[in-house]
Amino acid sequence: MSELHDECGVFGIYKNSEETDIVEETYLALYSLQHRGQIGAGIAVNNEGRMVYHKDHGMIPEALPESELARLGNGWIALGHVKYSSGEAVDHENLAPLVMRYIKGQLAICMNGALTNYQKLRNDLNKGAAIFQSNGDTEIISYLIARARIRSASIEEAVRLAVSELQGAYAIVLMSPSKLIGVRDPLGIRPLCLGRIRDSYVLASESCVFDSLGGEFIRDVAPGEMIVVDKDGMHSYTACKSTKSALCLFEFVYFSRPDTILDGVSVAKARQRAGRLLAQQHPVDADFVCGVPDCGIESAIGYSMESGIRYATGLIKNKYIGRAFNNRKKNSQYLMRIKLNALKHNVEGKRVIVIDDSVLKGDTSKHIVELLRQAGAKEVHMRIASPMFRNPCFLTSDTTPKEDLIASRMTSDEICRYIGADSLGFLSVESLPEIARECKLDFCDACFTGNYPLDVSETSREDKYSQKIK
After folding, report:
1. pLDDT tens readout for residues 179-221
2. What's the start-to-end Cα distance of the chain, in Å?
3. Looking at the domain 266-439, which fold is it?
4. By the number of CB atoms within 10 A of the CB, which of 21, 293, 311, 377 ranks highest?
5. Is 248 one of the catalytic residues?
6. What confidence tens digit (pLDDT) does each residue in 250-272 have?
7. Which fold has domain 9-246?
8. Which of 8, 295, 444, 447 is catalytic?
9. Where are the domains of the chain?
10. pTM (2 decimals)?
């Protein structure tokens, strides 16, 4: 159970059939992306050029009540977004989609990712007397598009000019009065894919959305590609080029749902491979293997298959508490106990191997070991389906400071003693790419190795999020 804060989730649909309820499809799509963000959600609908939207804090039912959905109407283009709090203030202005009005009409936009040149872009826009309502990356991008649109013949050209100024990781979905547009960053760090629901084209962060809606997964959006959907169909353009690619490996470890296919690789299969590799690299005798729900389960199954040690349930998760529950600071040990409990009937008197996806601060791992010991476990052997997480990631929606990462200041043996396990083993850095060996892209493993795929020297998320919006 990682403490890493989640990504956001984006969705867009261009309706080509009167039978399609565009608000309903967007609402259901956000349920499939709920794991990527549980702090807030929003939907924007294009009703013949007039954009109506609603966004609020909370999970889908709280943020998007039926009364507000009915108010949105049933237009031809819609955007949806689920948000993790990230380091941004969780003010209403930081929720998405962001809907703005400018000289060419209205524009709605949402994104997943982070800009590493945010501060430079914001300073430049400030010099041009820009007035900001939020401290989010999305507003920066919308300003750049609006500025570029004045000198561009089309919205596509304006988007291309705008993204040429961006540095970082992003999957952007936006709608103009007549078009749905999606753009993936030139390194392909953040995922974005294209699908079809009946006759309607859809863009989403993960392919599991199309399965959930009974649709068809067409393909992943290529790094640097811009997809445009309008009345004439779907069109593909190159928005920005790069000679390399760097898909975030943590998408396979934690962010994505196991039923997602990500750039040619099943996430569930990748996690099972991680478990198999763990069994090879860190074998130990035990009575059974269990996974920390939810992201450790597939890796635990892989460990079990490779080692021959049976798989069983050792931990039970409260299904009514989402990942965002970890955000609460008050009495954190009590809150973790409500979220997770040991199955004493299976654990008592047993030697247990417990598989988790990652260790960041170490407190959750320590709590899990304590739970299993209190339930009567004879031995607790912790295995982690990723390498030691030593470096902050500046390319996600949140950044854990380096000094808070336990692996940046402790060895594996020291971490083992801290969490109270009988043994601890991490997946080796060298074997990590093997879990997704069929992937069409190369990988970003900066959180494990410190080798960032782009310049992050000017990135300071702390400075960004400390800005006061007046």
Report:
1. 999 999 999 999 999 999 999 999 999 999 999 999 999 999 9
2. 37
3. Rossmann fold (3.40.50)
4. 377
5. no
6. 999 999 999 999 999 999 999 99
7. Glutamine Phosphoribosylpyrophosphate, subunit 1, domain 1 (3.60.20)
8. 8
9. 9-246, 266-439
10. 0.92
